[in-house]
Amino acid sequence: MKSIFHRLRGDRSGVVAILAALSMVSIVGFTGDVGNVYYAQAKLQAAADAAALAGATATSYSAVSGKKNASTNLTGTMASGYPVLKCLTSTGISCTGPDSANAIQVKQQATVPLYFGGVLGLKAWQISATATAGARGGAIQSADVMLVIDTTASMNTGPERGGVNN
After folding, report:
1. Residue 141 φ/ψ region, left for φ over 0, alpha for ψ in the -120 to 50 degree band, beta for the rest
2. Rounded to whole angstroms, what are the CA distances from 21 to 5, 28, 141, 153?
3. 135: pLDDT strictly greater than 70
4. Which of 1, 26, 91, 107 is an S-S bond match for 130, by CB 3.0 to 4.6 Å?
5. pLDDT digits (tens, 9 = 90+) for 69-111
C-alpha cells in the first residue's frame, strides 16, 4: 500500500489539467459575479435616469417603487437626502421662484448579492447611481420657411411621372 502512495505522489502527470479545471471554475464564477454587478449597476442607473427625468415625481419613478424602472432581482433605495433640487447656471434658465432650482438630482443605491464571492467572504456588493436632469433654455430662433402652392398641377406632369417637361 505504501508503494502505491509513493508512486502516485511521485507521478505528476495530469496535475496541470486538474489545476486548470479548478482555476477555470473559480474564474468563471467570479466573472459571473462581476457581470451580475455590472448588469445591476446598469439597471440602477437607468432607474436613476428615469427618476431624474421625471422630476418632481422622482421617488415614484425610481427603483425604490419596485414597479417602475426596476429590476425584479434588485431592490433599490433612494440615498439619504435625495432627491435634491439644484440651480445649474449653464442652462440659461433662471433659478428664481420658491425653490430657486432648475434641475433635480437623484441618487439610488442597492445591494447586489454575489454567488461565488462567498469563497472570499464577500456576500454582497454595494452599488449606487446618480443622475441629474435640468431644464434647458435658449433664445428663440427664427426659421426661414417658404411655402409653395402649385395650383396648376404642373409638378404632376414631369418625365418621372410619364408626362412631358415644359
Report:
1. beta
2. 23, 11, 66, 78
3. yes
4. 107
5. 556 667 788 888 888 888 888 777 778 777 788 888 889 898 8
Cα–Cα dist 41/131, whole Å: 13
User: What's phi and psi for 155, nearest 5 deg?
Assistant: -80, -5
Which residues, listed in sequence order, are joined to residue 112 by a DSSP beta bridge? 125
Strand partners for 84: 105
Residue with cell 464577500: 122
10, three cell numbers: 511521485
DSSP 3-state of 10: helix
Q: How many CB atoms lie within 10 A of CB 65?
A: 16
The structure's pTM equals 0.58
Residue where the block lists cell 439644484: 86
